[in-house]
Amino acid sequence: MKNMRKLYYLVMISLASILIACENRSEEWDVVDFGNDCTVGLQEHLECRFIPLETKDSVLLKDLYRVCWVDDRIFVFDRSDEINALFVFSDQGNFITRVGLRGQGPEEYLYLTHFFVDEKERILTLVDFGGTALLRYDLDTYQYISTQDVADYFVDCAPLDKENWIWYYPLGFATPQRENFYLKATDRKGEQDALLGPAYFTSGHTINGSKTLHAFAGDWYAHFPFTPEVWKVKDGMLEPAYKVRFGDKSMPPIEYVKEKGRGERGFSGDLFRSGYVNSFGLLETEQILHATYMCDKVTYFGFYDKDRKEAFSYAFPNFIRATGLTGFYGICGVYKDYFIGKISSTVLLRNQIHYEDLRRIAENRTQDDNPILCLFKIERS
After folding, report:
1. Which helix (H) or strand (E) holds 230?
2. Closest by alpha carbon to 197, among 216, 173, 177, 164?
3. pLDDT of residue 1
4. Does residue 284 register a pLDDT over 70?
5. Which pLDDT does position 22 carry in this prediction?
6. Residue 248 burial (CB count, 10 A)
7. Where are the alpha helices (DSSP H) in the chain?
8. End-to-end Cα spacing for the chain
9. How far apart are CA 100 and CA 142, in angstroms?
10. Which of 235-244, 265-274, 307-316, 367-376 has the lowest mean pLDDT?
């Protein structure tokens, strides 16, 4: 057993060396450049649908973090400390139910960070970061099924398939050789299968760590702190997928970040003011790869047309002007060929509204109402 364990770690360290070598050969990577900030109008190229989420005293959303469309239902996750719950709405925005209860008792969660839907097995999984556990529910009845404890701390995770999971931790999962890895692959019972992604920089001060992983076409992709490489998680390994660039904006050199974070100092403030791209999150449809990224205290929305190999990026205020989407404040999901955005009822009612459908919705809204979902698709002739 001891020899097998030693062989296991030798294999993993060898794999890490191979991956680093691949990383250093630029010809191994396709490059996706989101380009510089532009002001080109998009309104005539947008197909939009607006869905007002019903407001109730028991359903007042604060931080609409992630939205998932399943059949004729919309699952809406509020990540705020105050609410921290998963709600279900109809495809017209009518409230249906809340899934799970927050607390310290059996069948309850402490603090949710994610949820996942398995449409084939009809299972809904809530990820309890606070209790380091996975809570499973019936996707159709919302009835509690089981709780699985997770042995290690994590910040992000994803189900690779029915039996296997991937876990991300910015401090790294350690080996007996004291080498850390960002990702750990396990089976459904939590038994470790592999360690992936050598941890070149670790810190308890993370930025957007919960957006390290994203899914597309049945596969999961990962990127790590302050580097542009995006990896495909495949068969317990990391395969080079592509590198991202952001026009004339660059990511910080690792040595710069290490210096700023020396001695476990908080480095977020310095990074926000540095002029470097300090974090990014990815979503994609069949046609478009999207990045939400931050640089010099400004949020940017980048879109890359995969077929045309063309990009267009907007600083947040310029995106509002280019699209005419008054009150828009972020992208929180994907549904078929559409990105799912969120529109603040408060901001909407204080400004000019450019879409007739949105004007009709606004007539029956108040500034205290829940956000309006905006499904939009970019169609360029």
Report:
1. strand 229-234
2. 173
3. 39
4. yes
5. 46
6. 8
7. 2-24, 254-260, 268-272, 316-323, 345-348, 356-362
8. 62
9. 8
10. 265-274
Distance CA 321, CA 317 (A): 6
Taking the C-alpha atoms of residue 320 and residue 355, their distance in angstroms, rounded to an integer, is 13
Cβ(355)–Cβ(343) below 8 Å: no
Question: Cβ(186)–Cβ(192) under 8 Å?
Answer: yes
Q: Which two tokens stand for residue 56?
A: 């109730």
In sequence order, what are the residues at sequence separation of 6 or more whose Cβ sits closer than 8 angstroms to the Cβ of residue 16? 179, 181, 197, 198
Note every long-range contact of 237-241, with CB atoms under 8 Å and residues 24 or more positions apart, other chains counting.
237/15, 237/194, 237/196, 238/19, 238/183, 238/196, 238/197, 240/22, 240/23, 240/28, 240/29, 241/30
Count how many residues are written for the chain: 381
3-state secondary structure of 239: strand
Using alpha carbons, list the distances in angstroms from residue 292 to 135, 289, 298.
29, 10, 11
d(CA 67, CA 75) in angstroms, rounded, equals: 6
**Interatomic CA distance for residues 61 and 53, integer angstroms:** 9
Confidence at 142, pLDDT banded by 50, 70, 90:
very high
Tokens linked to 308: 């045309």
* CA-based nearest residue to 203, from 166, 167, 172, 224: 172
Non-local (6+) Cβ contacts of 141 within 8 A are none
Both tokens of 326, joined, read 């008054």
What tokens does 209 get? 């760590």
Q: Contact 378/303 with Cβ under 8 angstroms?
A: yes
